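WP5 quarterly update. Target: protein acetyllysine N-acetyltransferase. Source organism: Streptomyces ficellus. Length: 239 aa.
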Amino acid sequence: MTLVAILSGAGISTDSGIRDYRGPDGLWRRDPDAEKLVTYAYYMADPEIRRRAWLMRRDSAALRAEPNAAHRAVAELERTPGFAVRVITQNVDGLHQRAGIAARKVLELHGTARAVVCTACHARSSMEDALARVAAGEDDPACEVCGGILKPATVMFGERLDPVVLGQAMGIAKAAEVFVAVGSTLQVQPAASLAGVAAEHGARLVVVNAEPTPYDERADEVIREPIGTALPALLKRLG
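Structure tokens (predicted):
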């Protein structure tokens, strides 16, 4: 059984209509002020920031997006006899699961945009329900359990990654025989370091990304072609 780890970043979801953040047309480059909407300190301190953030979520295409050929190729490899596939994703869109990979085989380093959590009592509920309340006229919906401030169940700037999830990801990186980093700039730590950990522990490291990454020199193979065609071809060759 060959253990293949897939580290996916924003680039794998651009073909699904979800823009990346740091690319040439990324959200932070087009509107640097938008970063405040996902920064914990600003979000908690300013009701106006929260109102703008809820409107951004309401208008976002992310929750309506469908998996693309790259997501489906990963799911297909996972169903191939002789392969154990684990996905470590920096994305919060849930598209790997929607493509058919069991949730237990996907580690969401930065959480999920498909749920909300109360910052006071930590009760979780669906993003869909919260956005329905926004559509009904609540501009900053509060927790229905305790009245606390609601935030998406994502890791905002200024928050720590879940140490349990990160520990599991580190274990997978150390054990993987093939480690494919796809659609990630490999600049955001500690997620990016997983590529180096995998290489240090003997994995074949493949980087699939439009722009250079800090780990290209350590990779066994670097692919610059469009992810929607390059990743399916790579995984088919692997399988």
